[in-house]
Amino acid sequence: MNSPEPAPSAPSAPSAPPDTELRSWLRARVAHYAQLDAADIDTTATLTTYGLDSVYALILCGDIEDHLGLALEPTVAWDHPTIDALAGHLEETLAQASPSGESR
């Protein structure tokens, strides 16, 4: 006799990544540039949705470099066009960096 399997959980929409400190910081920066409340920023929407053009993308890149102490390609915001994508990329980059700093 087979033992009963646990009931499957109800299907749901794909879950958003956890709201990490970095994701919250990025949301706040985008909100600042777009002159909106951070709560109004959808982390799955493209940055261009909020009017961020190439100038803001470069400014955001500089802010990220200052905040995290990373050297980034100036196209990072275009290569990862949502807050979720950008945060994921940055979290991966930070995880790969050595504890004593990035080696080159």
Short description:
The chain is mostly helical and 104 residues long.
Structural description of this entry:
This protein has helices at residues 21-34, 54-68, 76-79, 83-96. The protein is an all-alpha fold. The longest helix is centred in the middle third of the chain and has 15 residues, at 54-68. The model is unreliable at 6-16 (pLDDT under 50).
Shape: globular
The profile of the biggest β sheet is:
none
Low-confidence stretches: 6-16
Q: Please, how many helices?
A: 4
Overall strand count: 0
Question: How is this fold's topology laid out?
Answer:
Layout: H1 21-34, H2 54-68, H3 76-79, H4 83-96
Helix pairs in contact: 1-4
Features:
mainly alpha; 104 residues
